[in-house]
Amino acid sequence: MKGEEKMVAIGEISLMPGYGSTQAVVLKEDAEADRQLTMFVGQAEYAAIAKEKGLVKSERPLTHELYLNILKKILFKFQRIEIFSMREDVFYARVIFAFKGREYTVDSRPSDAVALALNRKISVMVNADLLHPAPSQQDMQEYEKFIKRAKF
Amino acid sequence: MKGEEKMVAIGEISLMPGYGSTQAVVLKEDAEADRQLTMFVGQAEYAAIAKEKGLVKSERPLTHELYLNILKKILFKFQRIEIFSMREDVFYARVIFAFKGREYTVDSRPSDAVALALNRKISVMVNADLLHPAPSQQDMQEYEKFIKRAKF
């Protein structure tokens, strides 16, 4: 399966605080790209990504910061994240890291993976098949029906 | 400061899905204890703790599970968590872990620390000064005023 995936490196991660009736994170190859992955996420996931983008502050560590603070104390290197698949409205991502010269992969929700990537400044890769044109205002209502079922 | 803290080992962690107008996690020394720490938490934090208690399922790893899956792959040992202080309505906790024979401490929100402790089956310690009698139905309204400002 991995052989079939054409992965695109994401250069632009933007936040949409009021996208339809919820909040979204938009991933694009670059600011001018005409295709994107729109991730509708929960409040906690949105807050984590917004904090990494420097848009909100919170005095105490959020969940991902707690664990990244732990990992900072030991010899550990994150490599990249990959949002690689969607099956039955569920999106799948993985985090690739190295430890003692070996490469490891763990499953992740895309929203967790994006917060991690922003924190560690590592590459965000998305399967090209998952990218879509930005929905017009007209398309939004239809798109939201799908996206309400989808899980990021 | 650490020397002044009398820490109590928590043996009973229970969930209150509708405690007042929100959801809470209650920590007690044991089921019969007459003092407790009532933690009013957000939905994501509640879901993480409920999943660790086996009360809800989700097919994909939550944030804390992603990182615990990473840490499981490397030589790593969590020791205990401590909810040790409250200042200006903010509760403070820390996670103590060992790596290569050295002990480390990282700051944590109490809700993250409790989810971690349930996952790794390690001790939950609470500063005795933070425990209070269970609020009666009558007290709840008053207590909620405080608790709405407090941050777990």
Written overview of the protein:
The structure is a homodimer of 152-residue chains. The first copy, chain A, has 152 residues and is an alpha+beta fold. Chain A has four helices and nine strands; from the N terminus they run ββββααβββαββα. In chain A, the strands form two sheets. Chain A has a five-stranded mixed beta sheet, with helices on one face. Chain A has a four-stranded antiparallel beta sheet with strand order 2-3-4-9. Chains A and B meet through α1, α2, β6, β7 and α3 of A and α1, α2, β6, β7 and α3 of B.
Quote the beta fraction of chain A. Answer: 35-45%
The run of helices and strands of chain A is EEEEHHEEEHEEH
Strand order of the largest sheet of chain A: 1-8-5-6-7
Query: What summary fits the major beta sheet of chain A?
Result: 5 strands, mixed
Number of helices of chain A: 4
